[in-house]
Design goal:
Blueprint: E1 2-4, E2 16-22, E3 33-36, H1 66-78, H2 88-96, H3 98-122
Antiparallel strand pairs: 1-2, 2-3
Helix pairs in contact: 2-3
């Protein structure tokens, strides 16, 4: 799944990131496993792309749908929780050196454009 992050006025604005959502037979009683496939630099995203987000853990409700999950991820990109870090360096920079944090995020956003275009070229062309 491709996700265009669009939290306006944030360093992630205009980034296009790949996510996987894996649903088990226990859904909707258990949340899907959600992770970024695209490289990500964020206080609440682990190196493997897993997301530290309460609604994907202990605050899951069967009423949540994919839209609610994506909206929550978008909010998390906009407002990280540095008190529950999955990436301690990102959390530290977010709190102590916002300029450096935003510089690193800008690099990730630029990479998301390049990776998106690379994947578009790998897609097989459909006959018209």
């Amino acid at each position: 799944m491709l996700y265009n992050s669009r939290p306006h006025d944030t360093p992630f604005e205009d980034g296009t990131f790949k996510l996987t959502l894996e649903f088990t037979e226990e859904y909707p009683n258990k949340p899907p496993t959600v992770r970024f496939v695209s490289k990500m630099f964020h206080p609440n995203v682990y190196a493997d792309g897993s997301i530290c987000l309460d609604i994907l853990q202990n605050r899951w409700s069967p009423t949540y749908d994919v839209s609610a999950i994506l909206t929550s991820i978008q909010s998390l990109l906009d407002e990280p929780n540095p008190n529950s870090p999955a990436n301690s360096l990102a959390a530290q920079l977010y709190q102590e050196n916002r300029r450096e944090y935003e510089k690193r995020v800008a690099t990730i956003v630029e990479q998301s454009w390049l990776n998106f275009n690379d994947d578009e070229e790998k897609e097989p062309k459909k006959d018209s």
